[in-house]
């Protein structure tokens, strides 16, 4: 009798173990397949990876694990398991995004960080480079420039952000005026999509019209279509020379005219950056570089190319602008130029000195409307009684509109959030965009339909379904309704 | 009694008329809604519009009508009717395509020709232009250059091909090495998709990362997603100066080395064109420009930019190449440069003098493999006993491989067709593409899966369904299985 009962219980025990194996938790499965050192479940790690650089509060969850794949095979395996087990996947580059693109929003989800996938190999003769997503943009740039080659995209975060993140967000930067954004440099991709399928797109060639351009479509898709495991990037010849000029404006309305004159003079500047009076004051209060504080605005112009070509172009631009009655100062050497560009790059920290809270929007206006739109932006700031600082890439109409507030003052913070709605509305009224560089992520979801319309959103959702029918890749991003 | 019978018959009569109205033929409906002058059903017109410039025989049908819309509203109405009535739509620009993209393949289908939609309006301050699809590329270029602006894409057909066709095929050309292909210049589109829905994408701004980039995705989709009714194009500053150099090669293997040296010297040529010995001989036999007939190959280099910059760059390139032992000739004036470029542009007609039939393929190799691949292409020609002439945009690895044959010799034509298969195989073996400029259309359908793989084709088909679930936009193109 005892024997029978014992058998019975042992059967149940074995059955339970087998059931347990069959019903193993998704995270255990991931650990089993990838190994413990690639799937981290400590609460410290999980909390750390639930943030990115987004300056305002967003919906956020502590993920159930952080995964650090080391190869395409790892990525394929993890997507297979997550797809079977319906585990949401939140991909992450350096976490330097400003719209919550890398923030996990579901507790049952996992963060996939690519920081261990950072190999790259340059092909000088072909002027291409194959990169893993975790490569830091700046490191790549430094490396290829020594070979006479050039990878232009330069988001402010370029010293720490990764190529994977740059591709996911289609990163821009000042130099994109002349050289184009990240998308223009991505020739091919390997990505893991639904069910762990491997999608290879493009080739290490500049021209390729065989079928729909899935490569470029992936760029800027904010991790919602799949996980990029490698990319082939185009490199171009590194310009031999570079020069910087500073233009000072008494009147804001002259800025637009100056930009048009430059852009139709046969000179193609590599950057045309704008700072308003408050931005200038903020820089001078933070780390003074000797900018005059009595002007309404300034332009920083960068010209690159051959040695003689840069001289000629600088000369053309200087003549053009002085004939408009503007003050032009040309940086006499590398150090002076560097100082001016540091002023521009230090704007972020400079603003942090003014107020504890900052909403940095990156709206875009068609260039022609800038002179008209900037005063209207100021009206919004006045209406909501907020400090607003405007700077940005004026050559492509991409303005960084910064609404500053005191983080401890919840009422002021709310005012800033309401003001942002009007800022977006203004950009759309002028046929612009709610985002030129930062992406939609979590923070701009509700505005996307305003810009794209119902048909646009319908098409986007349809395409998302093709790559990710279970909505497991970065769910909750881009679309406000799921 | 008679009265009752008469009533009965008159009822039937009225019923028949109503039924007839309800069951009106699709073409009659189109005529009714758009008007007789926009819907042409004469057999002459229908036959005329069943061809494009594709040099080899393709599957072809005489369509049931040719429609000439004059506005977006016309396009919307016609798509609505065609979608209701399940009438296939074959969009057409100038019909200058080489892969059958504009050829109707179903008798019940209609050709939609955009030749009456050719308005455009330039915004100089914003450096953008809004164009209707029927605008001829060359006319637009001439117009904007007078304003100090520049629209670079330059397919060989640019003097007669249209912007709509160029967008549908993502047209390239020599200058795309430096300036990028058509896609890089399309900032926004209005398109009519399934059920006559109007899709607006993008904005007249350079940077825009709000949502998936549907704009660029439409470019190169060969009319399979919808009908483009207007596009916003980016214009850039027109370079002030331009110069041309001719480089002569005794040995083919030096060509690749020369290209790498140029592209890592800090000089970014606006074009790098290659002609092999047979191409040179063909030009000299057709319209002599004094090219030496004893060399293995030549390079035509174009450099543009500022006046002094061009001089410096020419000098750099000349020194570099002569130090490699190559002969370099610099065009002394505009007329000499023009003559050299005419030689390159006349290659098409020159080849027509050699044989009556020509298959002109536009495969792409990563630049590094060119020196290796060209002799292998020659082997294919030898194997099939065909005359092969190679020229093309060597800077981006895009080679025009011309297989020449006698049109009356069916056996030779078949040999040429078989040789093409091996040409494509070679390009793919070297990680290249089956098409850099011409698109897939009808003639390259069977090769697309080779290049993209099963997952690639699956994704493409899925996306096609989002825009066109009834498969009515240019059916039979791109995909070999429907």
Automatic annotation (TrEMBL), chains A, B:
The keyword Oxidoreductase applies. Its cofactor is FAD. Pfam families: FAD-oxidase_C, FAD_binding_4. Residues 59-238 form the FAD-binding PCMH-type domain. The keyword Hydrolase does not apply. Keywords: FAD, Flavoprotein, Oxidoreductase. GO terms for molecular function: FAD binding; oxidoreductase activity. InterPro entries: FAD-bd_oxidored_4_C (IPR004113), FAD-bd_PCMH (IPR016166), FAD-bd_PCMH-like_sf (IPR036318), FAD-bd_PCMH_sub1 (IPR016167), FAD-bd_PCMH_sub2 (IPR016169), FAD-linked_Oxase-like_C (IPR016164), FAD-linked_OxidoTrans_Type4 (IPR051914), Oxid_FAD_bind_N (IPR006094). Belongs to the FAD-binding oxidoreductase/transferase type 4 family. This is Glycolate oxidase/D-lactate dehydrogenase. It comes from Hydrogenobacter hydrogenophilus.
């Amino acid at each position: 009798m005892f024997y029978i009962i014992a058998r019975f219980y042992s059967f149940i025990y074995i059955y339970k173990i087998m059931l347990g194996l069959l019903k193993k938790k998704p995270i255990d499965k991931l650990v089993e397949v990838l190994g413990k050192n690639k799937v981290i479940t400590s609460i410290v790690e999980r909390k750390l990876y639930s943030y990115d650089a987004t300056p305002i509060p967003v919906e956020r969850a502590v993920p159930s694990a952080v995964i650090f794949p080391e190869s395409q095979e790892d990525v394929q395996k993890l997507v297979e398991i997550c797809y079977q087990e319906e585990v949401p996947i939140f991909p992450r580059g350096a976490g330097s995004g400003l719209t919550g693109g890398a923030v996990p929003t579901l507790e049952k989800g996992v963060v996939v960080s690519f920081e261990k996938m950072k190999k790259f190999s340059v092909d000088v003769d072909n002027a291409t480079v194959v990169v893993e997503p975790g490569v830091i943009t700046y490191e790549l740039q430094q490396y290829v420039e020594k070979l006479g080659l050039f990878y232009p995209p330069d988001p402010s975060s370029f010293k720490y952000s990764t190529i994977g993140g740059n591709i996911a967000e289609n990163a821009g930067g000042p130099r994109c005026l002349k050289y184009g954004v990240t998308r223009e440099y991505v020739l091919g991709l390997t990505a893991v999509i639904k069910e762990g399928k491997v999608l290879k797109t493009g080739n290490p060639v500049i021209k390729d019209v065989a079928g729909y351009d899935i490569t470029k479509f992936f760029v800027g898709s904010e991790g919602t279509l799949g996980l990029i495991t490698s990319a082939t990037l185009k490199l171009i010849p590194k310009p031999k020379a570079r020069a910087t000029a500073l233009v000072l404006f008494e009147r804001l309305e002259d800025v637009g005219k100056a930009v048009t004159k430059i852009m139709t003079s046969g000179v193609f500047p590599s950057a045309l950056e704008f700072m308003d009076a408050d931005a200038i004051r903020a820089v001078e209060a933070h780390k003074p570089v000797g900018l005059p504080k009595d002007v309404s605005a300034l332009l920083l112009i960068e010209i690159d190319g051959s040695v003689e070509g840069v001289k000629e172009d600088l000369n053309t631009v200087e003549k053009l602008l002085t004939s408009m009655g503007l003050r032009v100062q040309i940086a006499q050497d590398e150090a002076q130029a560097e100082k001016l560009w540091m002023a521009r790059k230090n704007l972020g920290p400079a603003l942090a000195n003014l107020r504890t809270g900052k909403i940095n929007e990156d709206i875009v206006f068609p260039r022609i409307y800038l002179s008209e739109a900037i005063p209207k932006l100021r009206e919004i700031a006045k209406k909501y009684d907020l400090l607003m600082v405007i700077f940005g890439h004026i050559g492509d109409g991409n303005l960084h509109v910064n609404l500053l507030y005191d983080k401890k003052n919840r009422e002021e913070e709310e005012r800033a959030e309401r003001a942002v709605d009007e800022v977006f509305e203004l950009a759309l009224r002028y046929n612009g965009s709610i985002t030129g560089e930062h992406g939609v992520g979590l923070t701009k979801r509700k505005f996307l339909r305003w810009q794209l319309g119902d048909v646009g959103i319908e098409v986007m959702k349809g395409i998302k379904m093709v790559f990710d029918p279970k909505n497991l890749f970065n769910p909750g991003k881009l679309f406000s309704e799921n």
